[in-house]
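hey can u check if this looks right to u? its 403 residues, i copy pasted from the old doc so theres a chance i mangled smth
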Amino acid sequence: MDVRTLDDLVGDFAPGGKRIFVRVDFNVPLERDAAGAIVVADERRIAASLPTLRWLLERGAALIVASHVGRPEGRPDPALSMKPIADRLAALLGRPVGFVPSSIGETVLARSSRLQPGDVLVLENLRFHDGEEACDPELARALAAPAELYVNDAFGTCHRAHASVTGVPGILPGVAGRLVEVEVAAFKKAMHEPARPVVAILGGAKIGDKIGTIRHLRKLADHLLIGGGMACTFQRAQGLPVGASLVDIAALDVAREILAERDGAQLHLPTDWIIAKEISSSAPYQIVPLDEVADPWRALDIGPRTINEFVGLIKESATVLWNGPMGVFETPPFDRGTLEVAVAIAEHPCVSLVGGGDTARAAKKARVVDRLTHVSTGGGASLDMLSGIDLPGLAVLRGRLGA
């Protein structure tokens, strides 16, 4: 799991005087301000890469910073330009930051060739090229052309075999930035050297998205707690009623296989639900046992008996791995299960690893982020790590520097 890091940039690979391609995850939300200009709505992902950028700048590197934002589907979209992100980066770094309205080509080469130690140049949205997601080797070569070294500080994209993630470091000597280094260390500690007992908690909507995660955590953990919509699929697989609840029909056979397995972690499913006819904070709701969910009612959160059981297991744990909410946490009162699980993890003196995406947002809603051991910055990347998958963006950074 270990990767080369900034500390390996020594000797011939020292950053001083070199142009370094830094892949960051600046996929931040954008909005229009009162004057109608597009601005950054949440700068946390930009701030997360500042330690890496500053470390390189302090050692005399010139930085070519690249990211994607949004889903432009391989075509230029002015609403998804990196320009406002470059402006915000300049404010956070406290120094000028250049911007070039393209990510490859003669203009990029010319601007890059004039960079001096301490300069920063932000490229245009990588996904304006359809070759980025296709990992087109020609695009990778064009991205690598202005630089001498590569640094990946975008953990949230490390599960993608994209041109800027696996293609460029296949051409340039590459290492992980501080953010990626911290992520890798956190997953290694929690999954490869865990203190026991280990409690794994999975939620979210569909089993199909997490089959590999379930199977891997079943081998790793002592207890596997399943909530959220995916628990309804297990309930249906047992022949129990689920009313109008979301069910992953395509995964029913897999759910039956998992239920029949006797090896590995003890499986814990909800014993009661909070149900309603619609997802609305004003909708009437009921608390019912698991076998009393009937049309047109839907299971939207784990019930109080299940919460008590899950919290009790968390309080007995030494390591907790959590990915996925227990219900529709965005809408009260269907957020109680998720929030109580989050608070229980935070208040218990355990090693806690929380996946990104919805799980990170739930932890923020519960106001417990600062009391958790590690909250990942990657949604899909963290899920793949919990599944035991070797992320392609990490695999390419192993071995001899420059190999």
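The chain is about 35% helix and 15% strand.
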